[in-house]
Amino acid sequence: MSRIDFSHVNKRYAPSLPLTIKDANLTVNDGEFCVFVGPSGCGKSTLLRCVAGLEDITSGDLSIAGVRVNDLPPAQRGVAMVFQSYALYPHMTVAENMAFGLQVMGSDKAAIAQKVKAAADILQLTPLMDRLPKMLSGGQRQRVA
What pTM was estimated for this model as a whole? Predict the structure, then answer.
């Protein structure tokens, strides 16, 4: 993981709404573990979605590994998120779920197969590649996601 810096980051979903994130100033250094705790609706998920590029910040600066990423698309940030719902397609096998994003990006079949195999090996999913999500434990589903 790389260092993440928030400098006076604000997020507002609409001009008529209050700030969801107000003047966030935070550094998470390389190798550190950080937990965001708070009541529902306080901005925890929004903050993480901003890091991943799934939400634009309203103002301030967000940097990853010393690079300002405010205007970078998600694919260029080197960040991935695992959502609580795991976002797996129930009718697709583990292998098909793992390959889906690469297929959408237009990667060639050989590259997809190689990347899926490498990820499956690292995540210890190789014996599960033909299973559907409903046949997996919660931890296995999270690794697939």
Answer: 0.63
